[in-house]
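Quick one, T. Sequence first:
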Amino acid sequence: MRLLSITVVGAAVVAAGLAAPVSSEAGADGTAVRVEPQVARPGTRVKVVVPGCTGGRRAAESAAFAESARLKGRSGRVDLKHGIGAGTYPVTAHCGGRTYAGRLTVSTERSWPSLLPGALNPQMARAQGDR
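Structure tokens:
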């Protein structure tokens, strides 16, 4: 029963983390670039959202992106590079004559192992075996 409770709580924590938008820098009119999910792994597809994006050519760029993200309306999807390292990467969106900024966090680690009980967590098992 305890394992089930831990699993349910762990799943809820992971889901909440994936649903949260990335912190970003606001543009001149208070809007900013959001990247969803907040923390992404190399090679995954992310959604770029720019609430204030209207008119003209619309695209978002980042060193973490495999290519420029074409925005349809106020959002678009793009794949991250497969070999990108962990870290925080700036994201810049161009909408007509305006520029918006935000950040994307890339992680090469899975977040769920730390939520598992010691016997099921390979990292904890290795650490306990080293003592």
